[in-house]
Amino acid sequence: MWIHVVIFVMILCALTGWKKGWIPSYGIGGKDGIRLFAVVAIAGNLLGMILTLQNGGQVYPQGYRLEKEDTGSYEKEFMVSVDGEEPVSMYIQVPEKELEEQEEEPKQNKKLTRKEQAQKSIAEAVSRYNEQRSDPDYYYLPDKLNGKKVKWESPADTSGMLLTGLFLIAAMAILVMKGREEQVQLQKRYEELLMDYPGLIMKFTLLVQAGMTVRKAFQKISLDYGRKRKRNPRPAYEEIRIVCYEMESGVSESEAYRRFGERCGQAKYKTFATLLIQNLQKGSRQMADMLERESTEAWEERKRKARVLGEAAATKLLVPMIMMLIVVMAIVMIPAFMSFYGET
Q1: For a tag site, which of 8, 27, 232, 251 has the least CB within 10 Å?
Q2: How far apart are CA 164 and CA 170, in angstroms?
Q3: 97: Cα separation from own chain's centroid
Q4: What is the 3-state secondary structure (H, E, C) of 236-268?
Q5: What sequence ranges are listed for the domain Type II secretion system protein GspF (predicted)?
Q6: Portions of the chain given CATH number 1.20.81
Q7: Could you give the CA distance from residue 75 to residue 284 in angstroms, rounded to a whole number?
């Protein structure tokens, strides 16, 4: 029972650490992963605790008796403690074992361990006690042995602990799965930001060259993206929308551009944000030329990326193509061999 309490305390400590920020939630699925972990772990521990309480070790009262069955003898396991000593596990057979089966043991002259000696002493005491009572219907468990108090109880059922362990393993597996999903989503976002950059910088360059201010160019890009956002959401343009919302809510342009570069997290976007901040602070007559040069480099980078992705796709298609070739060869050659050997 105390193990379940310790598990509850550990789960609460972990949740508190995640909430306070002492334990990082990065790589385990964030809040969703932590929430699922808590639900599964706490539910499993509760079910295990209930099972442990229902099937815990039962202490038998003084003078407890076992009913003899007409179908034959049966065994029952007990944990026996003599005068408060460490409990010993032993099986009691009802009715007791035949003497012929026990006569072979002294012939072996085997040295018994302390535990085996205790089991033997208790078994002999139980046998003598029931011989004295000579009850044809019941088999009794003595409450004293050589003047010492004997405590009988059933062994504790470990199914509750097993259930709790399985749920904890499932909760840890959920954290791992959520962490992998998070990594996949971050990698996908990273690649989408790279693919969006050339088109974004080209649109921005065209708008600036047309005479728009940087702020107006951002608003124009955000407005155009908002019309088709539901059909094709893109992370770079979502960040543009956030920049516009921040500026409308009172955040300065330079601070909004700086946050834009940090949220995107890539060197290209940070360079772009730095260029915009410098234009606000110092002004730059060559900003349009610099943007055009950046746009050209971005498109060249995208072409190289597309070429690499195309080569990777061709490599992945190699195995299916070989399998199709084998199938085609089998379709052509098997009938030829069958007709050749059929004629001979």
Answers
A1: 232
A2: 10
A3: 51
A4: HHHHHHHHHHHHHCCCCHHHHHHHHHHHHCCHH
A5: 204-335
A6: 182-309
A7: 94
d(CA 76, CA 74): 7
Nearest-angstrom CA–CA distance, 216 and 236? 17
Q: Which residues contact 221 (CB under 8 A, 6 or more apart)?
A: 200, 203, 204, 207, 237, 240
Structural Rg of the chain based on CA atoms: 39
Where would I find the H helices in 95-154?
Answer: 99-102, 104-107, 114-133
Asked if 168 and 39 touch (Cβ cutoff 8 Å), the reply is no
Is pTM beyond 0.70? Reply is no
For tokens 């047309």, the residue is 210
Answer for the pair 64, 141: CB distance below 8 angstroms, yes or no: yes
Two tokens at 71? 């179908």
CATH class label, 182-309:
mainly alpha
